[in-house]
Amino acid sequence: GDSVITVQLTEEDKVEDDVVFYLVFTGSTVQHCTSTRKINPGSLETISPGHDCCETVKVALCASREGHPVLVVAEESFQFVQDEAYDAAQFLATCAGNQQALNFTRFLDRSRPPAADVDFLDEKVALAFRHLKLPAEWNVLGADQSLSENIPRETLMHFAVRLGLLRLTWFLLQQPGGRGALSIHNNEGATPVSLALERGYQKLHQLLTEEEAREPDSWSTLSHTVHSGDYSVKHHRGLDVYMLTAET
């Protein structure tokens, strides 16, 4: 999700300014309707929705005009694929609380990818995490809630902070167990907060210690989502397009 989609109109579809175009994505369990913005008489632009699973969906381009019925202008198929970021998010979600898996992730720290790669990884994995269907009981600290804060262990928060993943850290902070993870020491005696300080991640340290810390600047800050039951409406401020998602 959250990629820019461009729609090229044919000559006969280039109509008056009072016609509004929408894209409707119909999946097996979820339907998305996105508004579009006109770039020029022959091109529209919108944002692809974040979908709940990897599948091929039907996309209909619809035209609406006041006082007239909605017309389906064209239909096409659109494929949501499982990429590396989705795999990584799924792996991290399932290894919350799994010490063997979390210790395994520490080898990434030794390779220290370049800053640009870390930034790309951070954005993509955080975005994939937001679109994962996490179980209602999911917790940053794992399933075993009987463990006390005094037991040294690795957490997902240690992982995100160690690599300097600002947006993923923000996401985890909003989840159950996110704040609790900040005071947990690992086997070296480091908390996520002390790790951020030790590594000189100033923005990250600020994010973890300030009560009113704001969401990091990213693609996601360009959009705002409102949920209501089985529906959600997202406004992408960058393109000024809206997306309605409904469970079917």
Order of helices and strands: EEEEEEEHHHHHHHHEEE
Q: State Rg.
A: 21 Å
Q: List unreliable stretches of 5+ residues.
A: none
Which structural category do the helix and sheet elements fall into? alpha+beta
For the sheet with most strands, the description reads: 7 strands, antiparallel
Return the average pLDDT rounded to an integer.
85
C-alpha termini separation: 19 Å
Number of helices: 8
Helix content: 25-40%
Number of E-state strands: 10
Sequence of strands across the biggest β-sheet = 7-6-2-3-10-9-8
Total domain modules? 2
Overall 3D form = elongated
Share of residues in strands: 25-35%
Describe the structure.
The chain has 248 residues and is α+β, with helices and mostly antiparallel strands. Strand 6 and strand 7 form a beta hairpin. It contains eight helices and ten strands. Helix 4 runs parallel beside helix 6 (166-174) and helix 7 (192-198) packs antiparallel against helix 8 (202-209). The protein has helices at 84-94, 99-104, 107-111, 115-131, 156-162, 166-174, 192-198, 202-209, and strands at residues 4-8, 20-26, 30-35, 37-40, 43-47, 56-64, 71-79, 223-228, 231-236, 241-247. This is AKP13 protein. One of its GO terms (molecular function) is MAP-kinase scaffold activity. It comes from Chunga burmeisteri (Black-legged seriema).
